[in-house]
Amino acid sequence: MRLAQDDLPSSPLISRLRAEGRVTRASTSVTVTVGGLTREVRVVHRDFPNGGSWSFYGCPHCGRRCRRVRLYEGQLRCPTCLCRLKVPYRVQLGDHEGVIARLREKLSGKPLALSGRTIHRKKELTASLRKAELRLRAKALGLK
Fold first, then answer.
1. Is this prediction's pTM over 0.85?
2. Residue-wise pLDDT tens digits, 101-117
3. Which strand (E) or helix (H) includes residue 133?
């Protein structure tokens, strides 16, 4: 089957690095390892009037802000670059079985923890799982 964005090795989310303290407001770059390749990636900050801020990766290819970069053909790229290169997501290829398996795996695991708090995404994941199962059923019945 064709290569999809879901299959590409990806960097950790920038918010995870910020929570771990590897990225601060003063950071201008961070070193990430993706698929065995270690690169320094620019960090861009969005400051708010109330004193808060968000951090983003600066795409090494196009310079856009993004939360995650993926390794494609030896280069780190953002989702926008991958879409321009026509690299689809797994569900766009019609691989509903793979999507369902991945969602079931996420739902069967323990919830993520961040600084002692628990992040619950069960509702969103369950809704995505149901939609994928409906698409698979519709495809099997020849409705779509």
1. no
2. 878 887 777 665 555 55
3. helix 122-141
